[in-house]
Recover the amino acids of this structure.
């Protein structure tokens, strides 16, 4: 009790004891401390309330952001698939059109082959993981083999030639020439990450080589080699050798400048099915510029690479007979000119031609 009274006096609280009344004066400093304490407690409670409110708001924002991120990802994937599919549909219709010429077919084939989703794979682990990539490969080869089968039914392999102007043959050649193309997005990703570039060409080659080596096949590789698909894929590679060689030949010669003798020999060649005569075209190597010679070399090199690859899977490919005869007649003007300096580009082209016709 005494202790309590002492404490009360210290705070300036009035005390009553019996009939005696004594008033203790209130110190201003003590009242100020009490008010500060009350105010501080109130502020702490308010801060706690605000903190809890902010935590709830932050959690809501976090959840909303995550939901938004997931929604955006789903929308991106859906839109990417939709646009890529629409592009492929549009371009393949051009390939099946009877009116388009080779240039239009080549352009359409290039865009078509670059529009498969594996070409647009970002490598993002949140949605574009390795499993998604394998699915993209499978979707791509399923579509490509089915559409190629439709086109394959419309061509005659025995008569097929780069000289003919059959529209479906031109489309087959256009696809064959464009198999190696990669979308710019994949090229940029490869530059940043070091991942290897993948094209329809590399998918076909890998499948054929793994089968040859008796190694297990992935799902998309099995599709490429199932039934007639294997024959179609092999014929694409054969056609690739011919069409790339034809591109090079066109820039090495000028068919508009044929002499009467050259025309006669070409006519005999065609009439006899190549048993007599020859294809001897006027050469223009000396008149070509550096860019043209680079283009010629690049196409010949790609044709040789494909031909040599076919040998590794036990497939022999000879140039189409018209092309073979024309290349055998080419001497790159060597018999008519004697340049003082060695032309290394000429030698490179000469070597590639020899590899094609051996």
């Amino acid at each position: 009790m005494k202790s309590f009274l002492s404490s009360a006096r210290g705070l300036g609280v009035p005390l009553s004891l019996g009939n005696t009344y004594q008033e203790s004066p209130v110190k201003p400093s003590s009242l100020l401390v009490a008010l500060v304490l009350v105010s501080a407690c109130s502020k702490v409670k308010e801060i706690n309330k605000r903190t809890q409110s902010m935590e709830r708001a932050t959690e809501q924002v976090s959840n909303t952001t995550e939901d938004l991120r997931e929604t955006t990802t789903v929308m991106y994937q859906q839109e990417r698939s939709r646009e890529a599919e629409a592009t492929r549909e549009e371009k393949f219709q051009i390939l099946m059109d009877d009116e388009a010429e080779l240039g239009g077919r080549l352009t359409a084939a290039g865009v078509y082959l670059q529009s498969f989703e594996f070409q647009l794979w970002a490598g993002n682990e949140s949605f574009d993981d390795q499993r998604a990539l394998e699915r993209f490969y499978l979707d791509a080869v399923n579509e490509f083999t089915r559409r190629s089968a439709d086109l394959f039914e419309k061509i005659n392999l025995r008569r097929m030639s780069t000289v003919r102007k059959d529209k479906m043959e031109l489309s087959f050649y256009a696809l064959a020439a464009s198999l190696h193309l990669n979308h710019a997005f994949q090229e940029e990703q490869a530059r940043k990450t070091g991942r290897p570039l993948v094209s329809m060409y590399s998918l076909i080659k890998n499948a054929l080589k793994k089968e040859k080596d008796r190694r297990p096949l992935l799902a998309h590789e099995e599709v490429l080699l199932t039934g007639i698909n294997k024959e179609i894929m092999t014929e694409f590679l054969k056609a690739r050798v011919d069409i790339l060689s034809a591109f090079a030949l066109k820039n090495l010669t000028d068919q508009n400048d044929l002499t009467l003798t050259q025309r006669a020999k070409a006519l005999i060649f065609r009439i006899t099915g190549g048993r007599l005569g020859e294809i001897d075209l006027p050469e223009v190597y000396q008149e070509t510029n550096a860019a043209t010679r680079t283009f010629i070399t690049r196409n010949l090199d790609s044709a040789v690479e494909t031909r040599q690859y076919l040998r590794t899977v036990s497939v022999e490919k000879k140039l189409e007979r018209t092309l073979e005869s024309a290349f055998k007649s080419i001497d790159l003007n060597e018999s008519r000119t004697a340049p003082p300096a060695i032309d290394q580009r000429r030698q490179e082209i000469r070597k590639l031609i020899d590899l094609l016709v051996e």
Q: What stands out?
A: Strands lie at 15-17, 20-22. The chain is about 65% helix and 0% strand. The first strand starts at residue 15 and ends at 17. Residues 28-95 form the longest helix (68 residues).
